[in-house]
Give the backbone structure.
Amino acid sequence: MQCPECKSTHIRQNGNRRGKQNHICVDCGRQFIDDYTALRGYSDEVKRECLKMYVNGMGFRAIERVKGVHHTTVINWVRQVGELLPDAYDPQTTPEVGQLDVACFP
């Protein structure tokens, strides 16, 4: 095993941290664990489904009941996606395509 900082092999055990063996490098003093696991989280598919439910008018707590994702997590996802959207269109520009609905009155 090598130190991730100085690549030294002079390493000692240094107790446990969150159920995993903690090590310390004698040369540089860096503490580390030898087995890093990926961060846990929701898949992109679950995020996409929750956002689709929100766009279709479902409430945050209803999404929580159906999908099992906490409502504040869904709120944070909506905020993250909202920051990617443009602020507003420029009212000074004229759109190239328009639509006119004509109602028929007797």
